[in-house]
Amino acid sequence: MTRHFLQDDDLSPAEQAEVLDLAIELKAKPYAARPFEGPKTVALIFDKTSTRTRVSFAVGVADLGGVPLIIDSQTSQLGKKESVADTARVLERQVAAIVWRTYAHAGLEEMAANTTVPVINSLSDDYHPCQILADLLTIKEHKGALAGKTFAYLGDASNNMANSYLIGCATAGMHVRIAGPAGYQPAAGVVARATAIAAETGGSVEVFTDPKLAIAGADAVATDTWVSMGQEAESAQRIADFAGYTIDADLMALAAADAIFLHCLPAYRGFEVSAEVIDGPQSVIWDEAENRLHAQKALMVWLAERA
Ligand code: CP
Ligand code: NVA
Questions:
Q1: Cα separation of 102 and 156, whole Å?
Q2: Ligand 2: which atom is nearest the Cα of residue 227?
Q3: Pocket test for ligand 2, best of 131, 229, 263, 271 (most atoms within 8 A of CB)
Q4: Residue 255: which residues within 8 A CB-CB, separation 6 or more?
Q5: 137, 292, 293, 296, best to mutate for ligand 1 pocket (most atoms within 8 Å of CB)
Q6: Residue 170's CB: how many other CB atoms inside 10 A?
Q7: What is the pLDDT of residue 80?
Q8: Measured in angstroms, how far is the CA atom of residue 130 from the centroid of ligand 2?
Q9: Tell me: the pLDDT tens digits for 14-63?
Q10: What is the model's pTM?
């Protein structure tokens, strides 16, 4: 059975650990794995804009011996003239894997259901699981073993990053704390799934509205934009609703003294985070952005071995 990576819990706790260990190996020896030797082609489809995801997947596929084929959905038939299922059948005859950044998560499920090659979610409205693998790799590099560490995310607790942090960090056995204002809280189903995973891994899950309670003593702190792709029309309302959630030096001072700061980027300085924090000594954002490459290479190798 072909394995896909559409959401964070598509990898079990043991499998997630295996992928992260492989990422550390590939970071040290970038050309050690060549699953796409041939070269085979990997389709990278973008319905939304991207810098990091486009670069890290394109470089990663090339490092693994393959050729990245970047498909901008604005100039392809997908979603307008042709169904996801028909696109999946066309692609599987010619590519070794499909990486897709899209809006509705259901599209990814439809793609996976209609193809024999691995499908990877490179961001949907609901999840950004490749980013969480990179973040976990970054936390592991800076803080050592993930299990038992406290991770706090403050901001839009109803977005793709919050969902993926809930599920992905619980999978890693971390204590996950998520804070967002009323109206921007995670869906009950996602919290329940994360809580069930944490019960297995020894982690825990807590959801707050008070950012100070969530960040207190945390080992790793993260935030994300208050206005995700596709929500631009709500910008003014959202900026008003998130007042008090900016991670500035005062809020960051409540975390552990040696806490690290993460942001998936792109960042909006002065909104979800102050320049002082994101450009300060606790910030590990450039390691985090680089780790997209290493984590995704490990994921592609792992999935290719099971395809
Ligand atoms: N963090 C992230 O996914 O960045 P891009 O939107 O630039 O790909
Ligand atoms: N939540 C953001 C993440 C960007 C990488 C978005 O979906 O736009």
A1: 19
A2: 8
A3: 229
A4: 152, 215, 216, 217, 218, 219, 221
A5: 292
A6: 29
A7: 79
A8: 12
A9: 999 999 999 999 999 999 999 999 999 999 999 999 999 999 999 999 99
A10: 0.98
